[in-house]
Each structure stands twice: as C-alpha cells, then as structure tokens.
Amino acid sequence: MAEVNGLAFNNSLGAGSSPNTEEPPENSSLSAPRSPPPELSAVLVADLWLWRLYPPLLLILGTFGNCATIATLRRLRSGWSSISVYLTALALTDTSLLYSGLLTLWLRQSFGVNIFSRHIVACKLFPWLNNSLGTLSAWLVVCLTLQRAASVIWPHRVSVICTRHRSYVVIGVVSVIIGLLYSHMIYGYDLQLVGQGPSRICDLRSAEYSQFWGDIWARVDLFIYSIVPSVVIVGGNGALVWKLAASTRRATQKLSAGQSLQNDDRAKKTSSATITVIVVSLTFVCFSVPLTIYVNSVFSKISDRGETSPFQYLVYNSLMLLYLSNFAVNFYLYCLTGSRFREAFFSMLPCWANGTTNVKRAATTKGTSIYSVSASEQNHNT
Fold first, then answer.
1. DSSP track, 271-333
2. Would you list the domain boundaries of the chain?
3. Residue 259 and residue 266: Cα distance in Å, rounded?
C-alpha cells in the first residue's frame, strides 16, 4: 500500500495523492484552475480562492519578515551570539522554502504552471530541496529550543558550551545529514510520459521505488520530520516553563519580603528571550502536527481506497497552507514577544529613527548602548 506523505511534497507539493498517481482527477481541486461552472460546489470554489489569495500574501509577509529578522539581528549585535546564529539560519531556510516550495505550488495550483515537469533537473532538485529544507527548519527549531533550555538551566556554563563557532558546526552537520538522508529522492524522481502523448509529469520513477516510499520511507520521514522534533520541542519547552515559573516565584518571594531584585534588567531580558523561544517552537508544532495527523491517519487511507472528496481535498490543502505558514510568521512572533527585538526593528524605520535618537544617545552616555550587550550576555539574550 502506497501511503500519502503530506510532508513529501509529492507532485509539486500539493498533489495530495499517492506517490504513484500520475494526475489528480479532473473534478478535484488540484486540477489546473479554470472558470468554475455554475454547478461547481461551494467547497471547490473555496479551495480555488484559497489557493489564489493566501499563497501570495504568505510570500509577501514571509519574505519581508525573514529579511527584517536578519537585518534586526545584525543591528542588535546579538548576531554574534549562538542563539542568533540559529535564528538567522532559520530565517534563511524559511525564505528558501517559501520560494522553492510555496511559490512553485502556487504557480501550479493557480496558473497550471508545473515547474517540476519542465525539466529533468527541476524534477529531481525541487522534491529533494523542499523535503530537506522542511526537515532542516524543524531541526533548527529543535536546536534553538535546546540551546535556550541549556542557557536557562546552566546559565554559568552556557557561554562555554554554546559558542557561536559550535553553532555554525551544528548547523553544518545537521544540514549535511538531512541532505544525505533525502538524497535518494534525486534518484527516485523522474519525468514520466503521460499516456501515449508527449506530455511528461514529474513522478516516482518506478513501482519498486513507489513501494519503498509507501512501505518504508513515509514512516522514516514521519519519524525524522515530525515525531522526534515535536517530542524534543515539547520536552524542552516544559523545562523552560518550569524554570521560568521557578524564577517568577523567587522574584515574588523577594518582593514580598521587601528585598531588592539584583540584575532585574538582565532577568527580564532572559525571561523575554525564553518566552520568544517557547512561542516560536510551540507555533511550529501547532502548525505542522495537524497536517501530519490528518495525512497519516485519514487522508492516506481514503486516498488508497479512491474515496477522496472535494471537502477532504479542501481540508488537506488548508492544513498544507497552515504548515507552510510556519515559514513566514517567525518575525512577527519575535516582535510580539521580544521587546529588545521590537525596539531594534522600529529603530531602523525612518519614522522611528528620529524619535529614538535621544534615547540611544542617553543610553550610550551611560556607557551601555541598547544595541550592544556584554560578552556574558550574548549567549543568554535574543
């Protein structure tokens, strides 16, 4: 039985069909868009407009947000810290996936332009690239969560353990391992003739590879991409919440006893960074897990039986777009939860620059610019 793996981006990221299916059915929401006849159901109309409106908005917001993230991190000068290395790598990965994945899917769904089937290089490159980038993004969130947990649990050792150089090494090693794990897709995808005509479609190259995909790789991919990262992220966030709650209790006890809080500003920055990591990582889980559950528990079974309906395709496509939203929202989460990040971003805007000049000058006069942090803080703050 060939299983549907919603994270595999089969047939240009959105086929929602089993890997050995050549073309979606003519009455499905995955056919090339055309003017809907009067009898077309409301579900198909909703699916049509979902693909026409949401992806371009996501591309605009994601491109702006990820570029603004990189620029803001450099302005904060925390780009030299290990946690900002992960944030920068995550922004670059997410931007790449928006264009290699979401853009190609939008062109196919809204305009009938299937880039995968245009050339053998695109057919082999894009499935491998999309799967690798999606999994890499998941594991960068894992690295970010673990690094933050280590900085909160062992604050005096994290500057030695989690250095900027080691962050580069970790990102490089994880990227190579993931790329190699998915490299079989370069062999497995090929241009296949459709019927007796000259048309070709990018699909799995053989029945044997299709069987390998459905019986073995779909489960391996589910384990690598979803199960392990989700468990680690939830566990790491549990440790962060526990330490954050303990820190809050200690601060409350000191205040009730009339004691002054030392290093209050640093504690606030640490708490803000911790909350940011918790929100980002849990958002990733909440946006990606629903697609995984639906594809592997519902859609794969009804697809194998040939019982898919327009409503089920609409649910699949909606969850796919929710998953792809992962790669466009991080900047807005940083601004929502990180006060220093938000201030640094607004200071780059011309309309805010004049208003913050006096604040920056006053802070610099006191010996500490709001855009610089001490060496001991660089590995603790976002």
1. HHHHHHHHHHHHHHHHHHHHHHHHIIIIIHHHHHTT---HHHHHHHHHHHHHHHHTTTSHHHH
2. 42-358
3. 17
- Exposed (0-12), middle (13-18) or buried (19+): which is 189, by Cβ within 10 Å? buried
Average pLDDT, whole number, for the chain?
76
Name the class of domain 42-358: mainly alpha
pLDDT by residue (tens digit) across 116-159?
A: 888 899 999 999 999 999 999 999 999 999 888 887 777 777 67
Instruction: Indicate whether 26 pLDDT > 70.
Output: no
Query: What string of DSSP letters covers 68-100?
Result: HHHHHHHHHTGGGSHHHHHHHHHHHHHHHHIII
Q: What is the mean predicted confidence (pLDDT) over 92-116?
A: 92
- Note every long-range contact of 168-172, with CB atoms under 8 Å and residues 24 or more positions apart, other chains counting: 168/85, 170/143, 171/85, 171/86, 171/89, 171/140, 171/143
Across residues 207-219, what is the average pLDDT?
A: 89
- The pTM for the full model equals 0.78
Distance separating alpha carbons of residues 159 and 83, to the nearest angstrom: 11
Task: Write out the H or E segment, with its range, that includes residue 364.
Answer: helix 350-365
What's the longest Cα–Cα distance across the chain? Answer: 85
Its sign, for the CA torsion 277, 278, 281, 283, is negative
b (16+ CB within 10 A) / e for 142-165:
bbbbbbbbbbbeeeeebbeebbbe
